Structure to design on (113 residues):
């Protein structure tokens, strides 16, 4: 009589151990995915910061050069600002998908690994 009860208890114990192991594995996988995504974004952020600093210094130089050519320094800054306004409008309307899609794909790719 005790054999069936023992088999059921063993089955429940194994099921409990399996579910705990599966939960632990899921936690570890989630941590791995979050770490990979975070490090990937941080490395890309570093490159973006360097490019932004270069662009800022280059822009100031161009603005000063244009201002000197036009005999008023602030004219150069107005021209550069207008250029960035036009570029921003173009990026907003036409290239928004090119920026959002790669970031979305990165997250989905890392999560589904």
């Amino acid at each position: 009589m005790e054999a069936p009860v023992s088999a059921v208890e063993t089955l429940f114990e194994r099921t409990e151990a399996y579910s705990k192991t599966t939960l632990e594995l899921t936690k570890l996988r989630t941590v791995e995915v979050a770490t990979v995504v975070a490090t990937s974004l941080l490395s890309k952020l570093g490159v973006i910061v360097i490019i932004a600093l270069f662009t800022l210094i280059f822009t100031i130089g161009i603005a000063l050069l244009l201002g000197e050519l036009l005999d008023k320094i602030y004219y150069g800054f107005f021209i550069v600002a207008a250029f960035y306004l036009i570029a921003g409008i173009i990026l907003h309307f036409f290239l928004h998908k090119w920026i959002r899609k790669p970031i979305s794909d990165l997250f989905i790719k890392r999560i589904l690994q």
Summary: The CA atoms of residues 50 and 104 lie 23 Å apart. The helical segments are 2-69, 73-94, 96-111. Residues 2-69 form the longest helix (68 residues). The radius of gyration is 29 Å.
